[in-house]
């Protein structure tokens, strides 16, 4: 597992993408931001192998060390390309754990597609169903506590990983709603990963898969949010 280039902090020290981006914008010099951002995604992606007790593919390890000798901006471009290769490999692993989704018989609007996806997630994922229940409760009762406090009341304090997973599913739910409001949908690979999470064993591996999905959804909707 690579360590963050000195003197910068590792992406793994941050629990979510927002705090990581805030750190990049405030503490990393502008000339280093591209590379540190890409390297942060590398460390996050390689954690995918670590939690599964899998060796990092040899070609990835060789390329990671090779590109360190490049000058900027070639080094950052090479690292972004490597990240795409790692992500593709991760996606293949996730797809092996999930059945293929049947092809749609008739065309549906993006909003309806997203509504069906959200309803299916609620049916198949207890953690996602908790978030949906919370959203309904907030609509009818303004005194319902904030989401993080609400989860703390449901999960024993010692079950930190379970609480984190429920919170992450809430983040996914909010992001999926944003995609729906933009009259867009998500691609088929991301749908497979969403439903594959429910088949993951509870623990660090499942939480990492959820964090990666949150990151990917954030990056997918960021251009629209900034427009």
- Euclidean distance between termini CA atoms: 36 Å
Shape: globular
Proportion in helices = 55-70%
Q: Can you tell me the residue ranges where pLDDT is under 50 for at least 5 consecutive residues?
A: none
Structural class comes to mainly alpha
What's the number of extended β-strand segments? Answer: 0
Note the run of SSEs as H and E: HHHHHHHHHH
The main sheet comes to: none
Counting DSSP H or I runs of 4 or more residues, the number of helices is 10
Radius of gyration from CA coordinates: 19 Å
Proportion of beta-strand residues:
under 5%
Mean pLDDT over the full residue set:
81
Please outline what is shown here.
By secondary structure, this protein is an all-alpha fold.
What does this structure look like?
This protein is mainly alpha-helical and 227 residues long. It is 68% helix and 0% strand. The chain contains 10 helices and no strands. The chain has helices at 17-27, 33-50, 58-66, 74-96, 110-124, 126-140, 147-154, 160-181, 188-197, 204-226. α9 packs antiparallel against α10. The longest helix has 23 residues, at 74-96. It starts with 16 loop residues before the first helix and ends with a helix.
Topology:
Blueprint: H1 17-27, H2 33-50, H3 58-66, H4 74-96, H5 110-124, H6 126-140, H7 147-154, H8 160-181, H9 188-197, H10 204-226
Summary keywords:
227 residues; 0% strand; 10 helices; mainly alpha; single chain
């Amino acid at each position: 597992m690579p360590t963050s280039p000195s003197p910068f902090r590792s992406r793994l020290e941050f629990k979510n993408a927002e705090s990581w981006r805030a750190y990049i914008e405030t503490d990393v010099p502008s000339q280093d931001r591209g590379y540190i951002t890409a390297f942060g995604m590398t460390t996050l992606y390689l954690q995918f192998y670590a939690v599964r007790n899998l060796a990092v593919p040899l070609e990835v390890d060789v390329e990671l060390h090779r590109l360190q000798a490049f000058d900027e901006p070639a080094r950052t471009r090479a690292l972004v390309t490597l990240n795409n290769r790692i992500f593709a490999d991760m996606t293949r692993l996730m797809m092996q754990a999930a059945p293929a989704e049947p092809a749609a018989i008739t065309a549906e609007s993006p909003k309806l597609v997203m509504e069906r996806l959200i309803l299916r997630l609620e049916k198949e994922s207890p953690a996602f169903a908790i978030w949906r229940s919370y959203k309904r409760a907030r609509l009818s009762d303004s005194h319902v506590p904030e989401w993080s406090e609400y989860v703390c009341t449901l999960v024993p304090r010692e079950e930190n990983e379970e609480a984190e997973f429920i919170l992450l599913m809430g983040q996914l739910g909010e992001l999926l709603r944003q995609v729906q409001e933009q009259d867009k949908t998500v691609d088929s690979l991301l749908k497979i990963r969403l439903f594959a999470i429910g088949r993951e064993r509870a623990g660090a591996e499942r939480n990492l898969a959820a964090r990666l999905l949150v990151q990917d959804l954030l990056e997918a909707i960021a251009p629209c949010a900034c427009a």
